[in-house]
Design brief:
Two copies of one chain form a homodimer.
Chain A (H helix, E strand, L loop, with lengths): L3 E3 L10 E3 L1 H11 L6 E6 L4 E9 L4 E9 L7 E6 L3 H13 L4 E5 L16 H15 L6 E5 L2 H12 L4 E5 L5 E2 L8 E5 L7 H9 L3 E4 L7 H12 L1
Parallel strand pairs in A: 1-3, 6-7, 6-11, 7-8, 9-11, 9-12, 10-12
Antiparallel strand pairs in A: 2-5, 3-4, 4-5
Chain lengths: 235, 235
């Protein structure tokens, strides 16, 4: 936790911040902070600053806070991700958030196991956990938007055209001919398929929407490795 | 498992391959293979080919195999990694191996917790597991070499000069001035520090050995995210 992410409900009437639970435990056990010390804080959706510890015991952390700078710039990318298995999902969301992705669409594909859509990891609060951890990791405050799209065809036909308008549209595909572009500055919509890849129908559908299949190399990477690798190459 | 990694002891006297244990279970439960089907196989340290399933039941998988091509090219990089916490170590080793790293030095740093060096994850067989999984993921056969260096100063002073000779030497450092270079073709020695980063003494010691501190961006990434991100940018 390189930044303590604060929400409106963390503030008391006199403008102090009062924390318990996970963040308190982390400050006690990992930061091993003391009264008087300053910690990096950020207001969810807002600015970054410093919090000075005014009280710290096993029940409560109290800080006075001052915000003075903007969070880091987001990556100009919308990530379309075939829904990964639940234990991987959390790590991928954390990694993508820490790298600055602000819109993630978890979509269905033929090779996504049906049971993944029933995972408790997709419920609102559980889905938000890795996003918060990713922001705290990267000292960011702007929560990404995560969209669940359990039907491929209506998503790609009806919703994707508006979502990807005026962006460079790329789909990672093991048998693509084009190499992964580097060092882009404009906005990108990046599609990453499931284990085993997109099926030809899916690649065709994405190509109809203007997606260029790109080749990421001979080595097949796990999605949690591929996401940082591709994002880092693109920007 | 995109490739079944085979070792000499998997071969019977008549040249067939006979597997039990983890690889058998994976072929049964994930590949759901049947007799007659072909699977991608590779000989540890050698070539890649196809294995045809001749017998498959709950006890044994038997295949005839033929090898016909070289594994993918390695990344020309030596990775010096501050020893991460044990649960992270496995994921980082797997990711680095899948990306083609062939030499990984797990080194001590001031901010590496002493207890990490006592982890059972560092024992020979346990350390090899994520390497094998990384090769199987990326369809590679060449096991990386992993060196454990629990003392920073003697490693950097006595051993590193030979290890990093004639390579571009880079140390990821949050307050560095130089950006991460892109698209290198020659060999690189890349140092990645612990959570919290290298201390100034360590950066000075690395600089004495010719390492350029490089800046990976404002966002602080977890080591399992940073490793694929940096490797992907460099090559």
């Amino acid at each position: 936790m390189n930044l303590i992410l604060l929400f409106n409900e963390d503030f008391t009437d006199d403008g102090r911040v009062r924390l318990a639970g996970r963040r308190l435990r982390h400050v006690l056990d990992v930061h091993r902070a003391e009264v008087g010390q300053e910690l990096c804080v950020g207001l969810a959706g807002g600015m970054i600053g410093r919090g000075r510890v005014r009280r710290l015991d096993n029940e409560t952390l109290e800080m006075t806070v001052a915000f003075d700078r903007q969070p880091p710039r987001p990556l100009p990318v919308t990530l379309l991700l075939a829904l990964p298995r639940p234990k991987v999902l959390k790590r991928v969301l954390l990694a993508a958030t820490s790298m600055g992705v602000k819109r993630i669409v978890l979509m269905n594909c033929f090779r996504v196991e049906k049971s993944f859509w029933k995972s408790p990891a997709l419920a609102g609060d559980r889905l938000r956990e890795p996003l918060v951890l990713g922001l705290e990791q990267a000292r960011d405050t702007m929560l990404p938007e995560v969209l669940l799209r359990p039907r491929f065809k209506p998503f790609v036909e009806d919703e994707l055209p508006a979502l990807c308008a005026d962006t460079t549209c790329l789909a990672a595909h093991p048998v693509a001919a084009a190499p992964c572009p580097r060092d882009l500055s404009g906005p990108v919509t990046l599609a990453i398929g499931p284990e085993g890849g997109f099926i030809p129908y899916e690649i065709d559908k994405l190509a109809e929407r203007g997606f260029t299949p790109i080749f990421l190399g001979e080595r097949i990477l796990r999605v949690e490795t591929a996401v940082p690798a591709v994002l880092s190459k693109l920007f």
